[in-house]
Amino acid sequence: MNNTTTFNTFARTRLAICVALACGTAATHADEMTLDTITVKDTPVEEGAGTGTAIDQSTLQFLQPATNDTATLLRDVPGVNLNGAGGVSSLPAIHGLADDRLRIKVDGMDLISSCPNHMNPPLSYIEPSNVGSLQVYSGISPVSLGGDSIGGSIVAETVAPEFASPGEGNLVKGEVGTFYRSNNDAFGGNAGATFATEAFSIRYSGSWSKANNYTAGDDFKTTTATGVPGHTLPLDEVGSTAYETQNHTLNLALKAGDDLFEAKLGYQNMPEQLYPNQRMDLLDNEQKRVSLGWTGGFDWGELEARVYHESVDHFMDFGPDKRFWYGPLSQPPAAPEIGTPCSPVGFMTCAAGMPMYTESETTGVTLQGEYDLTDEDLIRVGAEYQRYRLDDYWLPSGGGMWPETFLNINDGERDRAALFAEWESQLNASWTTLLGVRYERVTTDADDVHGYAIVMPAPGNQLVDAAAFNAQEHERTDDNVDVTALARYAHSDNLDIEFGVARKVRSPNLYERYAWSTWGMAAAMNNFVGDGNGYIGNIDLDPEKAYTVSATFDWHAADRSWQVKATPYYTRVEDYIDAVRLAGWSADQFNVLQFENQSARIYGLDLSGQMVLGRNDWGEWGLKALVNYTDGENRDTGDDLYNIMPLNGRLTLTHKLGGWDNSLEWVLVDNKDNVSDVRNEVETDGYGLVNLRLSHSWKQVRVDLGVENMFDKFYVLPTGGAYTGQGSTMSLNGIPWGIGVPGMGRSIYAGVNVTF
Ligand SMILES: [Cu+2]
């Protein structure tokens, strides 16, 4: 068994365990349970049946030089699209559900974004070059991998420990890599080193990357903001898209008989990540994490335990592009040079700073066991506990934002305790079932707050709002029950069918419950969706409850030389946390909204296929295709849900010859005219992009060369939110409404990786 082996869905967790064990002791066990072991060749993305998709090493290697944003490694997975954010932290969406609605695990930890703009989502802590495995459960994810989420699950692991082969002495190996991308002068490098004996393994890996703002495609140099006559913004350079980040990990592993002990330490230092769709920029993020794990094999099955701790120090203020005030609209300004010093230039003046701090501590314990009931039945039980503490406060500065410190979330607490059980059963040669139930208790709380002012004058109703918040009981306890039932049916050598139903529950996050200020400026700071609006929390929010039914039909040749998969799905979410209008709401502008439970439904279809075209003197040729369709509606208001990707597809021609591995991609996206009215979401035009990727591998050297957006097409990201990347952002409508964030223009990239 190796990494190019795809298992059926239910054996998927076993693959994860196998990867964690470097396919050692668990391999035999996993093989036993594998009903249908399929080796997929010549395809960068491995697709399991239905819910699970493992992204293989060749795809990871193929995309690594093109991106520092780990979430973008998921771009070929059916049902997944990416919501634009900062340059290294886009938010994956599965079937229209994103962010906290998904369960994203990094090395077994349920990491939480600690920022009122969710600038530090879980995958931003793992650099693409250090991703060892990435698995997506886009349909119904088993309760053992879900919890406190209503969409799918993403399981990311850093590179698994390697041990020396018996009798071959110590293992010493390393790698170094570097890349450059032309559009935004992105440049960086990574290095890794492993030393291992047969029982002990230590691996360090580190990476650094830095990029300037990117430029949009060449069709337009400027665009006129809708509804703001004469006000133009320079859009060739997309403001607030630069970044710089550094990641280090140290992984230790010890093998003793059937036991594996692991310690994983991580450190991130991110000096800058600017945001084109938020009013603030990340100007420092420091994360420290440690995860200790033990996996033991027994006659009856296996046991896995983990303890982890993470601390995050996050700081936001205005990056260089947001420090300018454009002046009166009667005097449209010339395009300011990015990075011009802060002294007044012409009629422009400087925006004062607004220092904002977010600090969190997360501690977790997980225990999971697998018990072999019979040869055909397996029971998986587990318990999890997570303790999360959050402080979000803004130091006094100028412009009404003083003299005290604004307490946005004061001593926030969110604790989860969960128990689950799963029963996996092979009924006969063609039927497998998985039944799971999970109970989770989520308790949230926060202390009393105050704004910048504790006596009059206090702009924005701060005294009244704080008093109203403080008068309420803050603690809330949710008892959440998840149930999933999945079945897989192997109809013939050419057709597999998998189907399932699930109830999944997610409790509100701390910002959704406890962000308290109705002041436009303060509310605009609480926004995880990048739409430019302000949000007010709601203590009385109930957990979201999603009921999903989905099926996957997988037609294929017996040897998988061709394959077509279709996954229709339908989800109804009771108490979906959407936003509602408040007094003063108006069309075609930014507004202050409040979180409210409503009813929503999402349906759609993922279609994917691949075929071998043939082989000639010039190599092996193949074709892959992918189509995603999602439709989301608020059932209470009839409004469309926010940030739903329009119909989109991808056609890829693949080519292999000797050490060459190449592809030509054609990405097609439809117009977006189903938009959220309550959020004044901007419509976007359809577009097509062409990407070319070439790679050549020798024994120790790999070279990648490619061009993305080959024809330098101008386009606007359909789920990239509102462009707020330039000018002073503190006044809710001081920046023009109606502009989406443009995507990147042509970019040529090159990467080299050397192993030794
Ligand atoms: Cu932030």
SSE diagram, text form:
Blueprint: E1 5-6, H1 12-20, H2 26-33, E2 38-39, E3 52-55, H3 57-63, E4 80-83, E5 91-94, E6 97-98, E7 103-106, E8 109-110, E9 131-137, E10 153-158, E11 171-181, E12 186-196, E13 200-211, E14 222-224, E15 232-234, E16 243-256, E17 259-273, E18 281-298, E19 301-317, E20 324-325, E21 349-350, E22 356-372, E23 377-394, E24 406-426, E25 431-445, H4 462-470, E26 476-492, E27 495-506, H5 510-514, H6 520-525, E28 534-536, E29 544-556, E30 562-581, E31 592-616, E32 619-634, E33 648-657, E34 660-669, E35 687-697, E36 701-708, E37 747-755
Parallel strand pairs: 7-10, 28-31
Antiparallel strand pairs: 1-2, 3-9, 4-5, 5-6, 7-8, 9-10, 11-12, 11-37, 12-13, 13-16, 14-15, 16-17, 17-18, 18-19, 19-22, 20-21, 22-23, 23-24, 24-25, 25-26, 26-27, 27-29, 29-30, 30-31, 31-32, 32-33, 33-34, 34-35, 35-36, 36-37
Describe the overall structure.
The chain is mainly β and 756 residues long. It contains six helices and 37 strands. The strands form six sheets. It has a 22-stranded antiparallel β-barrel. It is globular and about 75 Å long. Mean pLDDT is 88; it is low at 1-50, 222-232 and 326-349. Bound molecules: copper (II) ion. Copper (II) ion (CU) is lined by residues 115, 117, 119, 282, 314, 316.
